[in-house]
Each structure stands twice: as structure tokens, then as C-alpha cells.
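Justification of computing resources. Each target in the renewal requires a structure prediction run like the one illustrated here; the chain below, 303 residues long, is used simply to show the kind of job we budget for.
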Amino acid sequence: MADFSSGGQNLRSESTYLQRWARDVDTTLEENDKVLNLLAHRTNVTNEAVNTISSAVGVPPDPGSCSASCTGYIRDGILYQRVTINYSAPATLGSFAGIFVVVGGYNGASASTLVKVGEDTFHGAAGAAVSFSNLVLQKTGETITIYFVAKSSGEVARPDWQNAPNVSLALTAGVGVINSTLQTKANAPTNIGATVVGANPLSNDGVLTAINVASFSVQYGFGTLSYNSGSVDPGSFGKWGVYFDDALYSGGAVVFHADASASVLTASDNRIVAGYITTTAGTPRAGTGGGNGGGGNNKLNLT
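Resulting C-alpha cells:
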């Protein structure tokens, strides 16, 4: 009979060796997975740290001396608000490269709804003053908040716009500049509708020839303006048209005039008739009509 004892021992030895080798391979693979996971974790942590540092460095310092104002101007018969933005560059520029102009509470939106409406790119020295007036908004009568959000040359800005320097601005300005370049004659002030709101402001006591003018408002196509009270003395009793000129459509204090000639009432652009009145000695009188100087159903025939 053949002796296989030594061969059996050899097979057992090889089997044991293969088992140990397999365990070693499993262990090695397991360790490799741990190393790879550790490296991946470290890479993520490193990237996260770099991104955080990069963001912190990229956000520029805030501007200083922030303010805003507005004037009205008419274009195509509509009253707009030309907003002037003022600020100064930070004392230490860092990555500062200008501002985003962000508004809250504009055109019916809530105060917390912030919208970027403009921007300025800064090219100057630290602390330099900046002023620009290329921002145009509608005259909504609202008081809005304007935020001065600093930006970098890479357009990086703080994420919390609501914490940026800010000011309040009322969008209620009358006309400060009439842009004749943008207006055609059809849209010029002569053709802007105007009507005195409410009771006519003119009165006369029948004793003196002076005509008193109470404070009043005029409804234009672009909105309503209020005017101060005053008086004018034509020097005699009779039929008079009382008018004033408001070249900038700014309302407030104006100089009143009285004339009996209808042609005088239309002799100037921006001329508005406060009303008409027939004064009589011994009888108090009130005025009627008012609006544009040239014609209309609410005008008296003065000729």
C-alpha cells in the first residue's frame, strides 16, 4: 500500500499557509480602506477650512459716511426719483472694490424683501468720497431702506445684506430737473394735465381788491403737489385769473399773479392757473376752476 502520510502533511501545510495569506490580504485591504477613508476625511476637512478662510478673506470691509437723497424729474410725462448715493471708501481698503445698492420696502415689497437695484465700482484711495446719481426709481411715496453692501473685485459680498450700513429715503420728491433732452414737445410741461384738487382756493372780502389764496393741491398726470397760501392784489375789482409759474414742479411757496387777459395765462410753459374770480365792491366772492392756463371747461372767458 502506498504511503500518503507525508503528502497529506504537505497539503495541510499549504492549506494553512493559504488561509494565513488570505487573512493577511483581508487585513491589508481593511487597513487600506481605513487609510483611504481617513485621507478622504482629511481632504474634506481641509477643503472646508480653505473655503471658510477664503470667504472670510474675500468679504471686503464696509463703506463709511453713507447717505442718499433724491430729486424728481419728468420723462414722458411721468415723475421719477433720481437717487444720489454718497459713501466713503473704508480707511483700509483690503478687497473693497465698490458697493451693491440694495433696497428694502420698495414698490409694495416688505421691508425684509431686499433687491439689488444698482452698483458702483470703486477706483480710488482709502477713505475717498464717492457720489453718483445714475439710480432712478419710481415716485411711490414710500420710505425705503437703502443698504450699502460692499463688494470685492470678484463680486464677493457679505451674505447678510440686512446688516450692511443703511439709510432711509422717502420717495416723495417733486421735480428738481426737467430732462428736455429726453422729452419731446408732446411730453413737455405745457401738455401735462393739471387740475386744482377740491374747493377753489381764491376768495375776496369785497372790501379790499386783494385776492386771497388758501393753501391747495394740484393734480398732475405724474402725481399731486401741494402749494402754500398767499395773496395777490390786482389793484381793482373785476374778472381775474390768478396764476403762478412752477418751472421745476416742486410745489411749496410760489408767487401769485392776477391778470385779465387769457393770453397771459398761456404765455409760459409750466404756468398753472390757481383759479378765476370776479371781485365786486361790497360783496365777498369765491373763485372757480383752476389748472392749466390754456382753455378747458373749468376756465372763465376773460376776454
